[in-house]
Amino acid sequence: MTTQFPVTNDGADGTPGPAPVDTSKPLLEIRDLEISFATGGGQVRAVRGMDLTVYPGQSVAIVGESGSGKSTTAAAIIDLLPGTGKVTGGSIRFEGRELVGASRAEKEALRGRAIGLVPQDPMSNLNPVWRIGTQVEEALKANGFKGSRTELRARVAEVLAEAGLPDSARRARQYPHEFSGGMRQRALIGIGLASRPQLLIADEPTSALDVTVQRQILDHLGDMTRDLGTALLFITHDLGLAAERAEHLLVMFKGKVVESGPARAILADPQHPYTKRLVKSAPSLASRRIQSAHVHGEESAEVLAHHVDETPVVAGPAVVVEAKNLTKVFSIRGSRPGSSTDFTAVDDVSFTLGRGRTLAIVGESGSGKSTAANMVLGLLEPTSGTVEFDGVDVASLNTKDAFAFRRRVQPVFQNPYGSLDPMFSIFRSIEEPLKLHGVGNRSEREARVRELLDLVSLPQSAMRRFPNELSGGQRQRIAIARALALKPEVVVLDEAVSALDVLVQAQVLELLGDLQSELGLSYLFITHDLAVVRQIADDVVVMQHGKVVEQASTDEVFDTPREQYTRDLLAAIPGAGLVGDEIAG
Amino acid sequence: MLWYLGRRLLQVIPVFLGATLLLYALVFLRPGDPVAALGGERGLPEAVAEQIRADYNLDKPFFVQYLLFLRGVVTLDFGVDFRGREVSEVIANAFPVTIQLALMALIIEAVFGVGFGLIAGMRKGKLFDATALVVSLLFIAVPTFVVGFVMQIVIGVNLGWLPVTVGRDPDVISLLMPALVLAAVSFAYVLRLTRTSVVENLSADYVRTARARGLSRSQVTGRHVLRNSLIPVVTFLGADIGALMSGAIITEGIFNINGVGGTLYDAIIRGESITVVSLTTVLVMVYIGANLLVDLLYAALDPRIRYA
What we know:
The complex is a heterodimer of chains A (585) and B (308).
Chain A: E1 28-39, E2 42-54, E3 59-63, H1 70-77, E4 86-94, E5 97-98, H2 104-110, E6 115-118, H3 132-142, H4 149-162, H5 168-171, H6 181-193, E7 199-203, H7 211-228, E8 231-236, H8 239-245, E9 248-253, E10 256-262, H9 263-268, H10 273-281, H11 289-310, E11 319-333, E12 340-354, E13 358-362, H12 369-376, E14 384-389, E15 392-393, H13 399-408, E16 409-412, H14 426-436, H15 442-455, H16 472-484, E17 490-494, H17 502-519, E18 522-527, H18 530-536, E19 539-544, E20 547-553, H19 554-559, H20 564-571, H21 576-583
Parallel strand pairs in A: 3-8, 3-9, 6-7, 7-8, 13-18, 13-19, 16-17, 17-18
Antiparallel strand pairs in A: 1-2, 1-4, 4-5, 9-10, 11-12, 11-14, 14-15, 19-20
Chain B: H1 2-28, H2 34-38, H3 46-55, H4 62-74, H5 87-122, H6 127-141, H7 144-158, H8 172-202, H9 205-212, H10 217-255, H11 260-270, H12 273-301
């Protein structure tokens, strides 16, 4: 990938860019910051005694899981705390001036001009009803741009071009929905830096983007801030990413800074127990736990293969699901009546899932991985090609057999908030598939629900509760319990851990590994995250634009990737470079 | 865009046919003989009744009658009612005042509903918001005729600011009070819809991001909150045009206005089936037109919607 800006330095030594800045005085100084949110149950202290110093041109990262107070701190700096949030103590000084208690006009003057923001989700942070250019324009005008309309237009195009959008004058006239996620984030970076602020706050700037796009955007952001001498406050949940992108690191946990220091030092030698756990389970850094999960899979496969040998099945025992030349074509309505274009979402894809093994399908958004999964689940009919389950073509099943087939293949979806009915108690959610398939009587079903809750390590008392009372990780456990209710042979996990915090993700992955060896399950694991693949999968299928790019065992893919695209994906794992130097060593 | 417009206009045909057939069936297949009713208690001589039936095509099968009616609609010749008046003339007399009344009500509810809704949304939980919510709830809960009578007494009789009823040739001033009454309920809905929409948009990510790039509160409100909040409101207002036209029946009754409502009510009572069907058909067309307009306005407000 090419960027239009010369890279001045490696940046790791903290050399600021060409802008002449006094690096001895802190640009931003936060002391004993306290932030509370008023809730029905009283004050909730989101940030407790936070200290933070950013020097001009420096890059600092705050790392923590959701709810740790990292984004709240960032919002407090520009006084845009959501809802009932309030700074209840401490001080925030910018260039020596106190911001806590400053007037609205003072803060408004600072925003955009002195402190820029790159928000988290490019999809929701641009107003959908205004052109991109208009939104850049208003940022320039609000921050004292003086000039004619033509000059303004030219500057807008310049801002977008700087952010790495080619053909920027034309792009400026487009609306956000005509941009891809990566392009929108570039526009937002352009807006954030448009008025040349001294400090740029990047709040999870790429967590909503594909990994390869993420890397490009972060490279570009790094280059731009370095060239302009802008200090960067980088907020992320990903320790690997933070270590790779920032010189100084702060780890936040439950509203407190638990560790602070040079990024590489923290990574190599974490002091606080929380940081230790974080370093250990960061998927981008983990290379040790993989082996155990891998071995688990192997063992269960062997155990099962052995078991199958005793009671021979007609079909080949080792293969549960075989997809042959799967193709799915969607027809998209054109701009004129009768004109429709065909979009091939999945193009001639074949793979086999071995019994008791885990097959990961990896790809970026739009690669067709979820479409392939839906065809395996029988939720979507392939345009051509077949899905064979134990050697039987699923499409040939009649209604009754197809219903029975559903018992053997169960899904777990990405969003545990969306896949559980909020009106159903946990008991009812898990019981529903049993009831639907007429399994047992009421007391038998209740016993089974209790057993399932034990299986996913949740207390049995949880069954009387409702989804909104549980955390994301707990809900995902419920979703897994529900998937296992009918004793399926295959579980399709569609981005099942992507929405979870790192530590929770590690726990759920561990649970999945244990369940696999206990129950001899076969997993079809759909993910965009190669780091997770390494922890759980035996075999990998890499997909791009609906086609299979590479297909091999996990070790082969990671150690000797054959295709350029796979190499790009691997290189895009944040912190991948750090694993070699610091962790594995 | 032209393709879209063409397709939408083509869609009008089945809607029109379906609606008129249903209307026609409801009015003409109902029990009771309108011709017999003409005779009152004494009844008509059989020969006269036969003559009337033949004159109004009432002796023909239902579908033939319907087709003849359709031909009339297409040629804008709706026929004559039992009293010998041209139905098209009846329509031409009834609609102007109702259209004027409905448009006035629409403007009132749009301006005040959106205005107050915006302020209430911006000051969520404050006194203005609470008052606006209670008042709008009152407007929704209290029947139109009560609002009408109260206003007549207070504004018309006690204060004497506006005429109590509307005369033969209504002007804007005399229609103001009926328009206010007609707008009352919809005003309450518009206010609440705008308020909810504003509250939602105020906490949207792009509003926060706009503030973060240095825009002041008022700039953000004008550019980002208001326009986005108007999208659902416009949908409501468009659909409301039809409701205002037909909803004027009660209001027109209270204020003694000879509009669509009065004429329609009169025709129903008298069993003038042809007038009822014709008036309602025109209302259906107004409804369809208003909805088309809304869809086009929608695209103007929200660039994500591009009709193809």
